[in-house]
Automatic annotation (TrEMBL):
This enzyme's EC code(s): 1.14.14.5
Source organism of this protein record: Nocardioides zeae
UniProt keyword terms in alphabetical order: Monooxygenase, Oxidoreductase
Protein's name according to its UniProt entry: Alkanesulfonate monooxygenase
Length: 404
């Protein structure tokens, strides 16, 4: 892996402004130390949300699964426990009629004075969808999502009652619906299938990816933006990319932690005792997990700090690729993705609460300092030139030192 030549010129593809996302956890159970629980540890949840607010995060994702807490209710709690954090409701179209979802989201938006966001999950697993009675084939689920997006926006903006007779939804005389606080609520979708790109490029405000090698991700960004342009859009979807950083004071200490973590994560997955990992045996059906495993099988380490062994250990059960290193190395790696066009960066750890605190103290400020420097000078700072991570032999030796 050759060291890239540092150019202080800001790349044309670089995002000028970046916001940070985390994921809110309801109890102390983690992939490192699973705790048998199906409930909410309220004091823990309050501490977690406060840590996000204090740490300077902009958004938090409230995940959804057939056996998890309801994301709408949790999002409402986040809205009342914080002053600034924007709750992102993960929503499966099969679980909530679109006009009801529009009503619920607009209510959340009113209660939070314009902070609501929705992330639509079309469904990557037939088995998980069937647990709540959804037997629609995967390719048709994205067609349903497309119709769902149209109805959400109409429910928020139509000034008079309207009828709709579509492929998936049928009603007469709805509206006007309950309005959001100020403007239509941002709609995010993700996925790596052709159908996901088609719907996201044409209609989504945000398109989300898991952490991939830099050049591969840039190709995917160009793909979704090309679809948006072909659809006549003048405002392109924002790009959301997710990582699971493993951070310590130095690169060497971070790699000691990473090797320990992956062994513990693998043991948890093998026992099937954490969340949806219980259902993630066998070949994954969704394209995102398939891509993650392809990258993991080809190499454990990419670019400055992207580590795929955590994805391999979990059979790519959700976002699982790591960025490993000191705060400076990880911040520089995040900036590499910002330079490729990511303007929404989700970082959530394996040691959930402690990592959220550490990122807020040690990583986010470095990224924001660099972005402020760029804004003030029109040039890149030196962080990426000084903390090379995987572009050095020493770092790569640390990465392989714990290999079994």
């Amino acid at each position: 892996m050759s060291t890239p030549e540092f150019d202080p010129t800001i790349p044309e593809t670089a995002a000028r402004e970046v916001e940070f996302i985390s994921l809110s956890h309801l109890n102390p159970s983690t992939e490192l130390e699973p705790v048998p629980s199906r409930g909410i540890d309220l004091p823990y949840f309050r501490r977690y949300v406060k840590a996000l607010e204090d740490g300077g995060y902009d958004y938090t994702l409230l995940p959804y699964g057939s056996g998890t807490a309801d994301s709408f209710v949790v999002a409402s709690a986040v809205g009342q426990l914080t002053e600034r954090i924007k709750p992102i409701v993960a929503l499966r179209p099969n679980t909530t009629f679109p006009l009801v979802a529009a009503q619920k989201l607009a209510t959340l938006d009113q209660l939070t004075e314009g902070r609501a966001v929705v992330h639509l999950i079309s469904g990557g697993s037939d088995a998980e969808q069937a647990r709540q009675g959804d037997y629609l084939p995967k390719e048709r689920r994205y067609a349903r999502t497309s119709e769902y997006i149209d109805l959400l926006r109409r429910a928020w903006t139509e000034p008079a009652p309207f009828d709709h007779h579509g492929e998936f939804y049928d009603f007469d005389g709805f509206g006007p619906g309950f309005a959001p606080y100020d403007s239509p609520i941002p709609i995010s979708i993700g996925g790596q299938s052709d159908e996901a790109f088609a719907v996201g490029g044409e209609k989504a405000d945000v398109f989300s990816f898991w952490g991939e090698p830099l050049d591969d991700l840039r190709g995917e960004i160009e793909r979704v933006h090309a679809i948006a342009r072909a659809a006549g859009r003048t405002t392109l979807p924002r790009i959301w990319v997710t990582f699971r950083p493993i951070v310590a004071a130095t690169d060497a200490l971070a790699w000691e932690k990473a090797h320990d973590y992956v062994a513990r994560i693998a043991a948890t997955f093998e026992r099937g005792v954490f969340g949806k990992q219980l259902h993630q045996k066998g070949d994954p059906q969704n394209v995102g997990s398939q891509r993650a495993l392809t990258f993991a099988n080809a190499s454990e380490l990419y670019d400055r700090a992207l580590w795929t062994k955590t994805a391999a250990a979990t059979n790519a059960a959700g976002a699982s690729t790591a960025l490993v290193g000191s705060p400076e190395t990880v911040a520089a790696a995040i900036l590499d993705y910002v330079d490729r066009g990511a303007d929404l960066v989700s970082i959530r750890g394996y040691d959930t609460l402690n990592d959220a605190v550490d990122y807020g103290k040690h990583v986010l400020p470095l990224v924001r300092e660099e972005l402020a420097h760029r804004m003030a000078t029109g040039r890149r700072g030196t962080l990426q030139a000084e903390h090379l991570g995987g572009y050095t032999d020493e770092y790569r030796q640390l990465a392989t030192a714990g290999r079994a």
